[in-house]
């Protein structure tokens, strides 16, 4: 008899928190349990919907990156002379050792790089400030041509 009573009180204590979880106003155990099961089923459906939406977003992101890889970025080199300094801006497709090729072109032209910013996330982009060694006069067209040759040479080596 004592064990039956203990079991009842334990089960009542366990079921006391269920109405708060299910927002049930019923007192009957069966309806409380059914409400909790219904709530769990609804949550499971919501979770599946969120998972499907996440998978769709991942697929869209992958398609976006695939398209970015196939877009051909034109080779662009801009050189401006600001006082004694040359400001060089380069952008082209990512791949290969383009940074090394551009820096070698600077070396061949006799330019010292004072400052450079490089990005290789989706395409190769570089902005550099260079100064001629030994007060040489460097023509903007010569610098542009040398950098374009370095980029093209690098692109043809790795295709």
Defining traits:
four-stranded antiparallel β-sheet, alpha+beta, 2 domains
Percentage of residues in helical conformation:
55-70%
What's the tally of helices?
Answer: 5
> If you consult CATH, what is the topology of the largest domain?
Alpha-Beta Plaits
Strand order of the largest sheet: 1-2-4-3
Instruction: Please tell me the total number of domains.
Output: 2
Structural class: alpha+beta
* Low-confidence spans: none
Please give the CATH architecture of the largest domain.
2-Layer Sandwich
Q: Please summarize the sheet with the most strands.
A: 4 strands, antiparallel
Q: Over all CA atoms, what is the radius of gyration?
A: 34 Å
Give the strand content: 15-25%
Mean pLDDT: 82
Tell how many strands the DSSP assignment holds. 4
Rough outline: rod-shaped
Highest-level CATH class of the largest domain:
Alpha Beta
Cα end-to-end separation: 86 Å
Q: Order of SSEs, N→C?
A: HHHEEHEEH
What is this structure's SSE topology?
Blueprint: H1 2-16, H2 18-22, H3 29-70, E1 76-82, E2 85-92, H4 98-109, E3 111-119, E4 124-132, H5 140-157
Helix pairs in contact: 4-5
Subcellular location: Nucleus
Domain Plant bHLH transcription factor ACT-like: 76-152
GO molecular function: DNA-binding transcription factor activity; sequence-specific DNA binding
Would you give an account of this structure?
- With 159 residues, this protein is of the alpha+beta class.
- The chain folds into two domains: 2-68; 76-157, 2-Layer Sandwich (Alpha-Beta Plaits).
- 58% of the residues lie in helices and 21% in strands.
- It has helices spanning 2-16, 18-22, 29-70, 98-109, 140-157; strands spanning 76-82, 85-92, 111-119, 124-132.
- A hairpin with a 2-residue loop joins strand 1 and strand 2 (85-92).
- Helix 4 runs antiparallel to helix 5.
- Pfam families: bHLH-TF_ACT-like_plant.
């Amino acid at each position: 008899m004592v064990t039956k009573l203990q079991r009842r009180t334990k089960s009542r204590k366990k079921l006391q928190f269920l109405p708060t979880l299910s927002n049930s106003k019923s007192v009957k155990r069966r309806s409380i349990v059914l409400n909790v099961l219904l709530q769990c089923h609804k949550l499971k459906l919501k979770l599946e919907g969120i998972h499907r939406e996440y998978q769709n977003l991942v697929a869209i992101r992958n398609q976006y990156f695939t398209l970015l890889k196939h877009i051909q970025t034109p080779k662009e080199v801009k050189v401006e002379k600001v006082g004694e300094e040359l400001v060089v801006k380069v952008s082209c497709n990512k791949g290969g050792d383009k940074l090394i090729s551009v820096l070698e072109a600077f070396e061949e032209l006799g330019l010292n790089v004072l400052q450079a910013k490089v990005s290789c996330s989706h395409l190769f982009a570089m902005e550099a400030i260079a100064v001629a060694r030994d007060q040489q006069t460097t023509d903007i067209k010569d610098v542009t041509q040398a950098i374009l040759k370095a980029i093209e040479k690098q692109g043809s080596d790795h295709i």
